[in-house]
């Protein structure tokens, strides 16, 4: 089980999201792939956050990754997203997202949201390291009952999150946020994951 990315995002309704604080762990990839993987994870996370309504939690799978997002909305208009492998359980992931949003709002003044480069939130690196083991997040879950009261929408593929007729392949191709190398990495990974079918 692995966490690849954890981010706190400013997600105003009807506008593009802005990453306020983020940490990633791509150490399981080769040195030469890490830059491309990081770019793709950031792109994937912003795409999912932009398509998650305020007050909603959802999980989205793409290839070997699962993005769990909680768009809390409210006055702060904050969302949190965690991208994991498919083995990482959803309950601790959502518990961690609630915890990180609470910590972020307690430690970072809302007035600083307009200047993301000035935001200092080192706790996010601690969270991504500590919660690689989902049992650590489970202790938080015992205290929080909010998850049981909130509807979680599970989408099996990212296609169900995208707008009608929109394909992730087309978004990746048109994106200015991804380098040519990252686009090639995405295509290669997709081709390798779809080449073999076991009957």
From TrEMBL:
<keyword id="KW-0564">Palmitate</keyword>
<comment type="similarity">
    <text>Belongs to the synaptobrevin family.</text>
</comment>
<keyword id="KW-0732">Signal</keyword>
<feature type="signal peptide">
    <location>
        <begin position="1"/>
        <end position="16"/>
    </location>
</feature>
<dbReference type="InterPro" id="IPR011012">
    <property type="entry name" value="Longin-like_dom_sf"/>
</dbReference>
<protein>
    <recommendedName>
        <fullName>Synaptobrevin homolog YKT6</fullName>
    </recommendedName>
</protein>
<dbReference type="InterPro" id="IPR045848">
    <property type="entry name" value="R-SNARE_YKT6"/>
</dbReference>
<feature type="domain" description="V-SNARE coiled-coil homology">
    <location>
        <begin position="139"/>
        <end position="199"/>
    </location>
</feature>
<feature type="domain" description="Longin">
    <location>
        <begin position="9"/>
        <end position="128"/>
    </location>
</feature>
<keyword id="KW-0175">Coiled coil</keyword>
<dbReference type="InterPro" id="IPR001388">
    <property type="entry name" value="Synaptobrevin-like"/>
</dbReference>
<dbReference type="GO" id="GO:0005886">
    <property type="term" value="C:plasma membrane"/>
</dbReference>
<dbReference type="InterPro" id="IPR042855">
    <property type="entry name" value="V_SNARE_CC"/>
</dbReference>
<dbReference type="GO" id="GO:0005484">
    <property type="term" value="F:SNAP receptor activity"/>
</dbReference>
<keyword id="KW-1003">Cell membrane</keyword>
<dbReference type="InterPro" id="IPR010908">
    <property type="entry name" value="Longin_dom"/>
</dbReference>
<keyword id="KW-0636">Prenylation</keyword>
<dbReference type="GO" id="GO:0006888">
    <property type="term" value="P:endoplasmic reticulum to Golgi vesicle-mediated transport"/>
</dbReference>
<dbReference type="GO" id="GO:0005794">
    <property type="term" value="C:Golgi apparatus"/>
</dbReference>
<keyword id="KW-0449">Lipoprotein</keyword>
<dbReference type="Pfam" id="PF00957">
    <property type="entry name" value="Synaptobrevin"/>
</dbReference>
<keyword id="KW-0488">Methylation</keyword>
<dbReference type="Pfam" id="PF13774">
    <property type="entry name" value="Longin"/>
</dbReference>
<keyword id="KW-0472">Membrane</keyword>
């Amino acid at each position: 089980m692995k966490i690849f990315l954890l981010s706190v995002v400013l997600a105003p309704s009807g506008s593009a999201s802005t990453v306020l604080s983020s940490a990633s762990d791509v150490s399981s990839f080769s040195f030469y792939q890490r830059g491309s993987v990081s770019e793709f994870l950031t792109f994937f996370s912003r795409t999912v956050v932009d398509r998650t309504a305020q007050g909603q939690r959802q999980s989205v799978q793409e290839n070997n990754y699962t993005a769990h997002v909680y768009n809390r909305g409210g006055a702060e208009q904050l969302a949190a997203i965690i991208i994991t492998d498919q083995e990482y359980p959803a309950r601790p992931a959502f518990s961690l997202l609630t915890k990180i949003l609470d910590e972020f709002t307690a430690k970072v003044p809302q007035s600083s949201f307009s200047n993301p480069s000035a935001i200092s939130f080192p706790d996010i690196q601690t969270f991504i390291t500590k919660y690689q083991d989902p049992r650590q997040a489970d202790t938080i879950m015992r205290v929080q009952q909010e998850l049981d009261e909130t509807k979680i929408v599970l989408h099996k593929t990212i296609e169900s999150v995208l707008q009608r007729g929109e394909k992730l392949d087309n978004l990746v191709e048109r994106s200015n946020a991804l380098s040519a190398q990252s686009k090639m990495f995405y295509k290669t990974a997709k081709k390798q994951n779809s080449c073999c079918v076991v009957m």
